[in-house]
Amino acid sequence: MQHIDVTDGLESSLVMLGHKLLGVTVVRDYGADVPRIDAYAGELNQAWINLIDNAVDAMDGAGTLRLATRADGDAVVVEIGDTGPGMSPQVLARAFEAFYTTKDVGKGTGLGLDIARRIVVERHGGTIGIESQPGDTVLRIRLPNQGAMAEPAS
Predict the structure, then answer these.
(1) Which of 4, 59, 92, 140 could tie 63 with a disulfide, CB 3.0–4.6 Å?
(2) What Cα–Cα distance (Å) separates residue 102 from each residue in 119, 132, 140?
(3) pLDDT on residue 104
(4) Which residues, at least 6 apart from 120, have a Cβ–Cβ distance to it below 8 Å?
(5) What's the pLDDT score for residue 148?
(6) Spatial CB neighbours of 60, under 8 Å, sequence gap ≥ 6
(7) What are φ and ψ of residue 31, in 5° steps?
(8) Of the candidates 57, 59, 102, which has an alpha carbon nearest to the alpha carbon of residue 84?
(9) CA nearest 41: which of 109, 118, 119?
């Protein structure tokens, strides 16, 4: 458990996935008042990588990836959005199921969203949800600021 700035993790995830971001416009909307939180940094980075990777895959390598952070009461909210085709209600209903994937055989394991959900919900006591329509899918992660000092991230 470390006292972290979620923005740092998002930025390092972008670096890790840099080879996939050619042709993708990255829009950052990081709140200036977002506090640091106590979290398992490596695990959250795994969640960010899975979520960003899925967003880029959904856009087929071309579109706009939006990363946003904001303070919301006693929590930090992270949003990862894409301009891909969106998810049908049937896909949304099963999105967090282990081994469920809409990707072609050999392209995905169906574990990315399940792992991200476990990290956010089970390891950090947060929530994760999806809002989707054609051209605008947003994954919204809410992480509690578990008694950490409410100091703005630098």
Answers:
(1) 59
(2) 22, 15, 20
(3) 66
(4) 47, 126, 127, 128, 141, 143
(5) 40
(6) 84
(7) -70, 140
(8) 59
(9) 119
CB 61 within 8 A of CB 54: no
What the block records as the tokens of 120 is 């956010």
How many residues make up the chain in this entry? 154
Per-residue CA distances from 6 to 72, 81, 144 (Å) = 14, 16, 12
Q: Residue 46: which region, alpha, beta or left (left: phi > 0; alpha: psi -120 to 50)? A: alpha
Which amino acid does the sequence have at 50? N
Q: What is the pTM of this model?
A: 0.90
pLDDT at position 152: 42
Supply the pLDDT for residue 145: 87
CB 27 within 8 A of CB 66: yes
pLDDT of residue 105: 61
